[in-house]
Amino acid sequence: MSNIGTLGSRIVVAVVALLASAGVAAAGNSPRVNYMLHCMGCHLEDGSGKRDAVPDMRGVVGRFPHTREGRRYLVQVPGVSQSSLPDDELAELVNWLLHEFSAEELPAGFVPYGAAEIGELRRTKLVDVTATRTRLLEGADTH
Q1: 59 φψ region: left (φ > 0), alpha (ψ -120 to 50), beta (else)
Q2: Rounded to an integer, what distance in angstroms lies between the CA atom of residue 37 and that of residue 35?
Q3: Any idea what DSSP says for residue 15?
Q4: φ, ψ dihedrals at 129, nearest 5°
Q5: Rounded mean pLDDT of 55-65?
Q6: CATH number, domain at 73?
Q7: Residue 35 domain flag
Q8: Please, what is the angle between helix 87-102 and helix 31-38, to 10°?
Q9: With contact defined as beta carbons under 8 Å apart, do 106 and 98 qualify?
Q10: 50, β-bridge pairs
């Protein structure tokens, strides 16, 4: 009898946890949680990426908003533009990761992304992500 009671208690706890997490998801997650759910699998917990496969964001990602094309680039990379997150949560996530992984590289007077800007920019996909990234980081468009 005690085994059945214990199993029943575990099921109740699991159902309550599931319902609670569904309520949190419906209300929207914090940018940190969204990073863990949508980005960390490739960019890793510390933003370091995967050598020769996924770019390191640390000390780099904040360089892109110095130019209009760089600002667009950050939203048009496949992982961002194709995200299932709504525009407002995606804007919060992009702003969070810029400050989290590359605050010192952000331009003076950086204007955070807003939902409308994210919605507009993510409609256009990049054709050659690597070439665009390389060109932007080499400074071709940072004058």
Answers
A1: left
A2: 5
A3: H
A4: -60, -45
A5: 95
A6: 1.10.760.10
A7: yes
A8: 90
A9: yes
A10: 54
Q: Which residues lie closer than 8 Å to 141 by C-beta, 6 or more apart?
A: 67, 69, 70, 135
> Please, which residues bridge with residue 71 across strands?
none
pTM: 0.76
- pLDDT of 55 > 80? The answer is yes
DSSP letter, residue 132: H
Is position 62 within any domain? yes
| Inter-residue contact 134 to 60 (CB < 8 Å) | no
Q: Residue 28: which pLDDT band, with cuts at 50, 70 and 90?
A: confident
Domains in the chain: how many in total?
Answer: 1
Structural tokens at position 65:
């908003």
Residue 38 structural domain: 29-137
Residue 52's pLDDT is what? 85
